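ok new one. same drill as before - structure tokens go in, u give me an amino acid for every spot. 561 of them this time. try not to just spam alanines like last time pls lmao
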């Protein structure tokens, strides 16, 4: 324990001020009131000395050092003229907080706690003497209570700030003091006047683990989610760093709100995600990103890759990358994506909207070989963990899959490279024979669509006949998803397809119900086109077709339900 600051034994020592407190009483006479006012500056200095002496002691030690400190401070708590002086009141409160024990270890400390609460109540209560004093200055009682609360908070914040500003000192604020402060916040946590103390506790770098009470951290987390309290960005991030359940609650709350949100526009979705502060926290703290990413990984598996969950993951990733690229001191990508080849991460981080459309195909042909090598390595070693991690990485950056669909349908010749990428996305783990069989089936559908794209005039019946009559019966969900992705691309990016888009919505139920997947594909396509820097008149025509399909698909979903 550090040595306590010495208190002078002069006429202005402890005994002198205790006698003064007894003499003043509650300062009901004119003489005592004048004497209090005359001595306030020196009393203030003495209280600072007291605080300096006991701030690094526990309650038992402080009472041994100053046996009469309770009587001295208690009498001052009943003196309205002492309380009316802001600085003296704050000094008095600081001394009281030093004597409070969050977890009393003996009867002495428990008794001290009871006495402190009694003293605080006497300060807060407006008895007849205090009421007369306030009325003589025409001071409303409500303002008195508010001012007192602000002073309580101010005194505690000052202690924390003083500690922070003198980190070179060998004196450290004991862990129990931090717990004391956090416990004192609990009854008044949601009051705006208490926010400075909450933020000071969360943002102070105490260098110790688990110094704040779990009840405090949990209450702050719940109050934030219920919008009963509003904190600064740094305070919220520090809450998540200190208390992992609060981060998990925030992610769950965000995901549930997005699932229930009608996903008509990803602009709205990304605005909600950005407002949650989670992308920014993830970009500045890789550890938080990995927690959030693990949550997404789990919920994706639990929902069997539901399209809406994939859309949420991709929207979150876009918001995260936007902040990440703005961070001046960029951290190694390995800290965010420890299970992935970094060259693959870098390639996927480049947004399609940031490069000309003429370079899209070339960029995709750099991504696919890296994924193919990973798949081949899995087949040789027989472990699927690395395969899943890289598939999950691809899920994050869905815009490139969207681009691959567009490039596939608008190219003059079939690109097996792009077709393989879509197959890997829809069915990452396949035996060689399965992959060969699926490739043949999808190529057949693709060729049918390419023939129809050159047919003029084209009607919806021709498309339906070609698909229903010639397509091999669909047995697997991934086959159905692939065919519908090709069909969407056909309707959006070929002249014949645009003309019959409205009448072709019913074909999306080919092989089973897949309206959710098609709907999310349209939403992501619309968003990508809106954010393309090199957008031409052709993309605007596609946008019109997307909106038309979305409208028709919504009607179809209502009919199905």
């Amino acid at each position: 324990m550090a040595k306590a600051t010495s208190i002078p034994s002069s006429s202005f020592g402890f005994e002198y001020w205790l006698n003064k407190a007894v003499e003043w009483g509650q300062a009901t006479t004119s003489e005592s009131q004048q004497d209090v006012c005359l001595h306030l500056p020196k009393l203030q200095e003495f209280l600072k000395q007291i605080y300096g002496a006991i701030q690094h002691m526990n309650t038992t030690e402080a009472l041994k050092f100053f046996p009469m400190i309770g009587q001295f401070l208690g009498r001052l708590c009943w003196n309205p003229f002492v309380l009316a002086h802001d600085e003296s009141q704050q000094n008095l409160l600081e001394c009281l907080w030093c004597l409070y024990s969050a977890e009393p270890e003996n009867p002495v400390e428990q008794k001290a706690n009871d006495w402190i609460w009694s003293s605080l109540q006497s300060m807060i209560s407006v008895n007849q003497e205090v009421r007369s004093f306030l009325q003589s200055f025409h001071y409303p009682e409500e303002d008195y209570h508010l001012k007192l609360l602000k002073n309580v908070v101010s005194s505690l914040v000052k202690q924390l700030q003083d500690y922070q500003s003198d980190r070179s000192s060998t004196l450290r604020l004991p862990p129990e003091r931090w717990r004391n402060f956090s416990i004192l916040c609990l009854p008044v946590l949601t009051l705006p006047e208490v926010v400075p103390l909450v933020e000071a506790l969360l943002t102070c770098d105490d260098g110790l683990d688990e110094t704040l009470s779990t009840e405090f951290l949990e209450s702050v987390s719940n109050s934030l989610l219920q919008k009963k309290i509003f904190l600064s960005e740094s305070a919220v991030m520090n809450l998540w760093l200190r208390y992992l359940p609060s981060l998990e609650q925030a992610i769950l709350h965000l995901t549930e709100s997005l699932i229930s949100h009608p996903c008509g526009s990803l602009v709205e979705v990304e605005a909600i995600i950005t407002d949650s502060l989670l992308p920014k926290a993830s970009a500045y703290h890789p550890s938080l990103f990995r927690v959030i990413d693990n949550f997404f990984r789990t919920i994706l598996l639990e929902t069997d890759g539901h399209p809406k969950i994939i859309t949420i993951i991709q929207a979150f990733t876009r918001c995260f990358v936007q902040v990440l690229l703005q961070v001046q001191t960029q951290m190694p990508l390995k800290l965010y994506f420890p299970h992935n080849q970094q060259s693959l991460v870098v390639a996927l981080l480049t947004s399609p909207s940031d490069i000309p459309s003429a370079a899209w195909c070339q960029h995709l042909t750099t991504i696919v070989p890296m994924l193919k090598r990973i798949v081949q390595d899995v087949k040789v070693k027989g472990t699927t963990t690395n395969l899943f991690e890289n598939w999950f990485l691809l899920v994050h950056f869905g815009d490139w899959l969207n681009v691959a669909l567009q490039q596939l349908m608008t190219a003059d010749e079939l690109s097996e490279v792009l077709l393989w990428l879509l197959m890997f996305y829809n069915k990452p783990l396949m035996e060689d024979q399965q992959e060969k069989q699926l490739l043949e089936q999808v190529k057949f559908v693709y060729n049918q669509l390419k023939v129809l794209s050159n047919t003029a005039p084209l009607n919806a019946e021709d498309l339906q006949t070609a698909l229903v009559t010639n397509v091999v019966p669909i047995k697997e969900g991934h086959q159905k998803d692939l065919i519908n992705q090709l069909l969407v691309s056909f309707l959006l990016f070929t002249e014949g397809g645009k003309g019959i888009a409205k009448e072709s919505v019913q074909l999306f139920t080919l092989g089973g119900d897949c309206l959710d997947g098609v709907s999310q594909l349209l939403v992501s396509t619309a968003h990508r086109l809106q954010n393309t820097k090199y957008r031409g008149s052709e993309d605007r025509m596609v946008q019109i077709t997307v909106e038309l399909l979305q409208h028709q698909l919504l009607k179809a979903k209502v009919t199905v339900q």
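The chain has three domains: 1-139, 245-335, 342-560. and btw The CA atoms of residues 420 and 439 lie 8 Å apart.
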